[in-house]
Amino acid sequence: MIGLCIQDLADIVGGRLRLADMPPLGGASEPVRRVVLHVDEVQPGDVLLALPNSAASQPGAVEAAYARGACGVIAAGRPLAPWPGAFSIDVDDAAWTLWQLARALRQGFDKTVIGVAGPVGKTTTAAMIAAVLDQPFAAAPPAPGAHEEQVAAQLLSLDERQRAAVIELPATSHGQFDAQLHLACPQVGVLTSPGGPQETTSAAGMAHDFDPAADLLSALPDDGALVLDQHAARRTQAVERLKNCLTFGREASCDVSATHVLCEPGRLSFVVDGQLVRLPVWGRSHLNSALAAWCVGRQLGIADATIAARLANYRAPAGTCRVTSVADVAVIENSGAGSTQATSAALELLGEFSAPGRRIVLVDRIGAQAHYDDAAADEFGRQAVVLGGADAVLASGTHRQKICEAAARHGVPASACKAFDALAESVSYAAQIVQAGDVVLLQGVDGAEVQRLLAAMQFRKNDRQAA
After folding, report:
1. Residue 162 falls within a domain, yes or no?
2. If residue 23 lies in a helix (H) or strand (E), which one and from where to where?
């Protein structure tokens, strides 16, 4: 709920408002429920903002939105005839309209805004913070265009009924981050590690001189709070400017320090100040996210026992690395393929499995497409062996041959390194060779192909049982 009426919306975006001949019941004073960017998100009372180069700007999208119950549509470049009981707003620049609307909603939001930044783990950390706050979480919605539009899209979902807003800040350069910070205006900044100046661009496509910790420090208010891991804190200058700078890690000197860390199948256990936590996740890579969420909970006055209980109910959001079991096969889905550091964490998780069968890597994309090159492919092939202990590598995508060559060079039998022209071919092959007891990492595989593989594996198991 955004607390605006139709006229408020038109005034903010500066567009030309048109009410239908049969106008909304309250006329221009009719309340607006939400503003959304995707037709399939539209519910009765919502407004669709049709961004350029998006599905919402394609022919038929406006009609589909009205048919789903949209009370209005905002679009650029053409006047729209609103359906009965609805309205339309014609604007000059839909992307700028998104920015204006996001800024207005942020200025009217009087709860705490928590900004989560860093090269890897933003979505998982944000989801765990939401769990600690005991409020629902939705991963940052995709938005066409710049990273700034992704932040603006999240601000459309600000809800005064919630205790705080958790916003992911997906910047990869100082300029992007500065714009995002000015828009989101967080009072609490959370930095996933690493937090100092980035040494390479390949890890997450970040600029060499981008120091998110320094940018966060300069953007936070004097009474704000900065949450960062122990290593980032040591690299960051002028942390003393903030009264509230909370550190997390394994060292006793941290404000939130984890001890007795135990990684078991499907569970990560640790202790914070005598409070035992059982987190229902696979792999140690979740530890820092949980500790960062713990820091935020303390900053907002939530008791340690409550934090532990809420983390115990955490569920990984869609788009993050998840583990399922199908037909007696453990399947690690890293379909998001956001950064090479996230990919490394998925490979480490593969290596941690003590399974009786083989470790199989099926890869289509390594990371964000703009940063996927021969060097990254070669490094992935190496890490598949060194970190993941891969017994077989099935690769498709542009750099499939490079991946297979690197994996073979580091110890995977050449006969077990197979390059396929299309993802569908590698999925079909995997469905034939995967056996009970194996562990399969699906790296950068589209959701439809993931489901096809899982269905084929289950079918083979049922077929064997029937025989």
Report:
1. yes
2. none
Mean pLDDT score, 6-18: 94
388, 347 in Cβ contact below 8 A?
yes
Q: Which residue has the higher pLDDT, 266 or 69?
A: 69
Mean per-residue pLDDT of the chain:
87
Query: Would you say how long the chain is, in residues?
Result: 467
Place of tokens 């996210």: 289
Bond preceding residue 170 cis, omega within 30 of 0:
no
The model's pTM: 0.81
Q: What are the tens digits of pLDDT across the range 333-348?
A: 987 555 667 788 889 8
Range of the domain at 48: 4-101
Q: Are 186 and 154 in contact (CB under 8 A)?
A: no
- The domain tally of the chain equals 3
Tokens 């930044």 belong to 117
- pLDDT given at position 234: 65
241 and 147 inside one domain: yes
Residue 250 DSSP SS3: coil
Residue 259 within any structural domain of the chain: yes
3-state secondary structure (DSSP) of residue 189: strand
Q: What is the average pLDDT across 156-172? A: 90
Q: How far apart, in whole angstroms, are the C-alpha atoms of residue 63 and residue 77?
A: 16
The edge-to-edge listing of strands for the beta sheet with 392-395 is 322-326, 329-334, 439-443, 359-363, 392-395, 417-419
What distances in angstroms separate CA 437 from CA 161, 329, 398, 451, one per listed residue? 46, 5, 30, 19
Beta-strand ranges (E) seen in 280-420 are 322-326, 329-334, 359-363, 392-395, 417-419
CA distance 390 to 350: 8
- Distance between start and end Cα atoms, the chain: 55
Q: What is the CATH number of the domain that holds 40?
A: 3.40.1390.10
Evaluate the CA torsion angle 346, 195, 379, 168 in order and state its sign: positive
| Residue position matching structure tokens 């942020």 | 106
Amino acid at position 93, single letter: D
Q: Is residue 317 part of a domain?
A: no
pLDDT in tens, 263-291: 887 899 999 999 999 999 888 888 999 99
